[in-house]
């Protein structure tokens, strides 16, 4: 017997014309749905997210096909991937049938669905369908029986579930009915290549005319269900089938954590930041429509986890609601300023989002509007910190002339006294003024001296890098501070900067580029690693047990997770990881300018993080960010566990082990 | 309505102050300057009044060296219409009478209906400019104001009196109002207003052209108070007796326990 099957068996070739008619209607409805959305996306401002299209396309296709972003969370990511691959194969299979029967066979008499190819085709599609059904069952259990906290279910979730399940099951019953009549007895050899169809065929009654009736009815209903599915894509969460892969194409190709730099010389600018839908970019609006409310961002958000108003998912959904309500809709009213000020800009949401939604820049845009257009602050303490930054160039309101007082007696000089330094150590505000972090800076100076590195300072010419101001939305103050620092760098011809703080590192190294500074900026952890690797710095390993807290601005903003671990291992450390570590680390609560603000809502993020560190059973939590060290120590005090856990800085640990 | 607001630029109060060369005032090197806090309340109140009447005009004035332009710019960004800079590099040597004379000399050029200023400066703290200016201009004067409203040509103001008592005063315009903490929350200038302020007029006058009044008083010496060792450690005994001793100390040496 030959290995193939009669296409349009039982329904006849007469169905082709009406079938294509219905398909055209469904495809038309889908196209119309997406077309209607275009106007909403277009209500946003221009933004270039298409240049370098070849790379973008390659990324979009590979991310989507490999389900790369979805698989970051193996459960339920693996089932999503299984369903995706299964359904993709089924769609490909149906397309092959169409290609043969309606085109190549008709036009050239060419039939390729036969022989070994057909056997493989049958088998693969059967397994693909089975995989899709299994995944769908898992989704059903997860969504309707054991629903995880925060997973909202809307009507279109139910409809999509029902429709997909119906399409898959009817597909197998149609196959079973056909096989029962044409294959089961006539060609059992071939039937083995359709294991699920074979199983279904065995369960159906044997009367051929009843089977043919069942087959015909289901064939039509399956077809209408499939076309209904196509038609409803843009009108339901199924829109993500198209919107997310396309969003991979549109995603930001710039450096991690980049932000749009406002052109303050542009005198035509009337508004700053975003208050209304039409003050967002089209990409922001598109992002909101690509969101499927999978809540992964919310699950990883430190503000949400500690009972604050902010949920990154809700922010995006609020933007979506506003966008479809009209271009003039007030997005800040929808999102609420309370939610906006709660963000630590830790970038967890953005890193974990399978739809490549960019949450943080949207929050900053809205903060910019609150700050630059309305003169609002997160609180009185925020107003005081900004006022101090304006006058004293540090958020503490301390005299900036005393900025380098911490280095007195350490043999490190300002560049104004001795410009011949190997590196400029940009201490930043915390290492310059905060008692605890001044001690850390002194330890780093010890390390430099030991390695024969001559460090210089800017002294009173150094100002706050501007990061907290910028993240709180005060772009004007940020650019003023940055401008003064850049002038000082130029004055001394600074080429290599080592920073105490990951926030300074990211701001000087990434954000200052938009303002014309192109120097090499590294965090001191990376610098120490370089010194060890080049043999300039030798450590004598002394065993100690610790857990490591990644700073968000090291991990998610700079991709630096290995270097600190390598340095601490070289120092003799034995690391027990917290569950949330690396680029999944849980913020200390100090980012986004929050270190300068009181945390009045919910519980303290730092205490939550300290609990996680305590769970490792290690007596020390090592970090390498002044905000983190401050917040962790605060968390340890608040949690009243000062005897069980100490917060230490990487530089302190290293300085104790200089060989 | 023509409104004048007088502001002073003062060093940040967290600064480390050192005497200058002749020991009569502080050395300005390494100091960060800002607008006098009480003058910020004055600017805010003046801007609020200005906003109620589009036909009115609000002028901000400051006496001092080139650096005071920053304070003028801030006031312009907060909503003043134009600025007057009375240039005087040695304003710190002038006494309140001379400074008030400078302001009065300028104010007489224009017909101001009302003048706002801080109740005192945070650095010198003489609290005399407002009353002296009112005297020189022949205006009515209300000081330490924590509430302000205007009906026609009559201002109704709340004043803060000794011991927390409040008083309500009605004053006929023209008047000088000196502003105290609690009057308002000064606005943070928005970016569009900062941009607009860059184009606003800052007229400059030389101090010597406005007034040559002689000083009535002169600063003799500027020095830091002598440090006294006031620390006290209570030792010995149990917690209850230590607490008792502490209460005694608080009663005898401080006012915190006096109702």
Detailed description of the structure:
The complex is a heterodimer of chains A (659) and B (259). Chain A has a 5-stranded parallel sheet with strand order 1-3-2-4-5, with helices on both faces. By secondary structure, chain A is mainly alpha-helical. In chain A, helix 5 crosses helix 7. The N and C termini of chain A lie far apart (81 Å). Chain A has 29 helices and 9 strands. In chain B, the strands form 2 sheets. Chain B has a 9-stranded mixed sheet with strand order 9-8-7-10-6-1-4-5-11, sandwiched between helices. A two-stranded antiparallel sheet of chain B has the order 2-3. Classes of the chains: A mainly alpha (659), B alpha/beta (259).
Spell out the helices and strands of chain B N to C. Answer: EEEHEHEHEHEEEEHEHH
- Kindly state the mean pLDDT of chain A as a whole number? 96
* Number of DSSP helical runs of chain B: 7
Strand portion of chain A: 5-15%
Molecular shape of chain A: elongated
Tally of helical runs of chain A:
29
The profile of the biggest β sheet of chain A is: 5 strands, parallel
Offer a concise description of the structure.
Helices cover 55% and strands 5% of the residues of chain A. Chain A has 659 residues and is mainly alpha-helical. The mean pLDDT of chain A is 96.
List the helices and strands and how they pair.
The complex is a heterodimer of chains A (659) and B (259).
Chain A: H1 16-42, H2 53-66, H3 74-108, H4 115-145, H5 155-182, H6 188-191, H7 195-203, H8 208-232, H9 240-250, H10 282-290, H11 296-300, H12 302-305, H13 312-325, H14 331-335, H15 337-341, H16 348-352, H17 359-374, H18 380-392, E1 413-414, E2 423-426, H19 428-433, H20 435-450, E3 455-457, H21 467-471, H22 475-491, E4 496-499, H23 502-509, E5 520-523, H24 524-533, E6 544-548, H25 552-555, H26 562-570, E7 573-575, H27 605-615, E8 620-623, H28 626-638, E9 646-649, H29 650-655
Parallel strand pairs in A: 1-3, 2-3, 2-4, 4-5, 6-7, 6-8, 8-9
Chain B: E1 2-7, E2 9-11, E3 33-35, H1 37-52, E4 57-64, H2 69-78, E5 82-87, H3 96-107, E6 114-118, H4 129-137, E7 140-151, E8 154-160, E9 166-172, E10 175-179, H5 191-197, E11 202-206, H6 207-210, H7 239-253
Parallel strand pairs in B: 1-4, 1-6, 4-5, 5-11, 6-10, 7-10
Antiparallel strand pairs in B: 2-3, 7-8, 8-9
């Amino acid at each position: 017997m030959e290995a193939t099957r009669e296409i349009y068996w039982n329904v006849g070739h007469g169905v082709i014309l009406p079938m294509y008619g219905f398909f055209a209607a469904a495809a038309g409805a889908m196209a119309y749905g997406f077309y209607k959305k275009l106007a909403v996306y277009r209500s946003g401002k221009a933004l270039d997210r298409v240049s370098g299209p070849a790379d973008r396309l390659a990324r979009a296709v590979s991310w989507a096909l490999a389900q790369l972003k979805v698989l970051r969370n193996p459960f339920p990511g693996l089932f999503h991937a299984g369903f995706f691959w299964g359904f993709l194969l089924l769609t490909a299979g149906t397309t092959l049938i169409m290609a043969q029967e309606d085109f190549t066979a008709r036009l050239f008499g060419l039939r390729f669905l036969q022989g070994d190819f057909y056997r493989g085709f049958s088998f693969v599609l059967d397994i693909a369908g089975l995989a899709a059904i299994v995944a769908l069952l898992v989704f059903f259990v997860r969504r309707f029986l054991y629903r995880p906290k925060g997973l909202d279910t809307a009507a279109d979730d139910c409809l999509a579930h029902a429709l997909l399940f119906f399409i898959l099951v009817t597909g197998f019953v149609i196959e079973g009915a056909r096989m029962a009549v044409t294959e089961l007895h006539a060609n059992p050899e071939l039937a083995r290549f359709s294991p699920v169809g074979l199983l279904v065929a065995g369960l159906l009654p044997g009367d051929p005319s009843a089977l043919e009736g069942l087959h015909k009815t289901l064939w039509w209903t399956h077809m209408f269900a499939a076309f209904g599915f196509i038609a409803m894509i843009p009108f339901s969460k199924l829109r993500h089938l198209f919107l997310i892969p396309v969003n991979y194409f549109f995603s930001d190709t710039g450096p991690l954590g980049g932000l749009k730099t406002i052109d303050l010389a542009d005198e035509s600018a009337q508004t700053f930041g975003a208050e209304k839908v039409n003050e967002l970019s089209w990409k922001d609006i598109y992002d909101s429509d690509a969101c499927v409310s999978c809540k992964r961002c919310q699950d990883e958000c430190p503000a949400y986890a500690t009972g604050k108003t902010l949920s990154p998912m809700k922010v995006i959904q609020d933007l979506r609601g506003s966008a479809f309500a009209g271009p003039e809709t007030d997005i800040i009213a929808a999102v609420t300023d309370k939610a906006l000020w709660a963000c630590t800009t830790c970038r967890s949401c953005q890193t974990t989002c399978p739809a490549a939604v960019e949450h943080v820049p949207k929050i900053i845009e809205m903060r910019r509007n609150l700050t630059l257009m309305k003169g609002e602050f997160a609180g009185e303490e925020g107003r005081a910190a900004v006022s101090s930054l304006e006058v004293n160039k540090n958020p503490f309101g301390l005299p900036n002339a005393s900025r380098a007082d911490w280095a007195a007696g350490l043999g490190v000089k300002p560049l104004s006294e001795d410009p011949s330094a190997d590196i400029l150590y940009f201490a930043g505000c915390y290492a310059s003024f905060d008692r605890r972090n001044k001690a850390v800076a002194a330890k780093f100076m010890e390390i430099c001296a030991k390695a024969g590195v001559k460090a210089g300072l800017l002294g009173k010419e150094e100002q706050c890098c501007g990061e907290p101001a910028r993240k709180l939305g005060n772009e004007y103050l940020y650019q003023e501070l940055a401008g003064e620092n850049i002038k000082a760098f130029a004055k001394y011809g600074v080429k290599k900067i080592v920073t105490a703080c990951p926030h300074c590192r990211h701001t000087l190294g990434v954000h200052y580029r938009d303002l014309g500074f192109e120097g090499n900026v590294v965090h001191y952890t990376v610098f120490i690693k370089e010194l060890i690797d080049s043999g300039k710095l030798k450590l004598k390993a002394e065993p100690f047990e610790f857990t490591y807290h990644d700073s968000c601005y090291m991990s998610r903003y700079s991709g630096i997770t290995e270097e600190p671990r390598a340095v601490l291992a070289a120092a003799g450390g034995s690391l027990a990881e917290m569950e949330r570590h690396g680029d999944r680390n849980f913020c200390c609560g100090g980012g986004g300018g929050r270190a300068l603000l009181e945390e009045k809502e919910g519980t303290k993020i730092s205490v939550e993080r300290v609990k996680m560190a305590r769970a490792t059973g290690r007596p020390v939590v090592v970090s390498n960010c002044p905000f983190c060290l401050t917040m962790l120590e605060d968390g340890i005090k608040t949690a009243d566990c000062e005897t069980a856990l100490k917060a230490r800085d990487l530089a302190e640990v290293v300085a104790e082990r200089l060989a | 309505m023509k409104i004048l607001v007088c502001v002073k630029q003062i060093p940040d109060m967290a600064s480390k102050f050192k005497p200058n060369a002749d020991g009569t005032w502080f050395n300005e090197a390494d100091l960060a300057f800002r607008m006098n806090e009480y003058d910020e309340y004055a600017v805010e109140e003046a801007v609020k009044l200005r906003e109620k009447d589009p036909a009115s005009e609000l002028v901000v004035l400051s006496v001092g060296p080139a650096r005071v332009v920053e304070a003028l710019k801030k006031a312009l960004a907060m909503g003043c219409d134009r600025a007057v800079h009375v240039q005087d590099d040695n304003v710190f040597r002038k006494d309140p009478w001379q400074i008030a004379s400078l302001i009065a000399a300028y104010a007489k050029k224009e017909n101001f209906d009302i003048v706002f200023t801080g109740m005192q400066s945070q650095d010198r703290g003489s609290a005399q400019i407002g009353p002296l200016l009112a005297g020189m201009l022949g205006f009515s004067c209300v000081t330490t104001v924590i509430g302000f409203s205007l009906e026609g040509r009559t201002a109704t103001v709340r004043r803060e009196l000794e011991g927390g008592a409040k008083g309500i005063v009605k004053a006929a315009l023209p008047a000088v109002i000196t502003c105290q903490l609690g009057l308002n929350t000064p606005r943070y200038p928005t970016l569009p207003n900062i941009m607009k302020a860059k184009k606003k007029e800052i007229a400059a006058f030389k101090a010597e052209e406005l007034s040559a009044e002689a000083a009535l008083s002169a600063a003799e010496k500027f020095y830091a108070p002598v440090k006294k060792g006031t620390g006290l450690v209570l030792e010995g005994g149990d917690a209850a007796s230590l607490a008792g001793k502490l209460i005694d100390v608080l009663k005898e040496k401080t006012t915190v326990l006096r109702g």
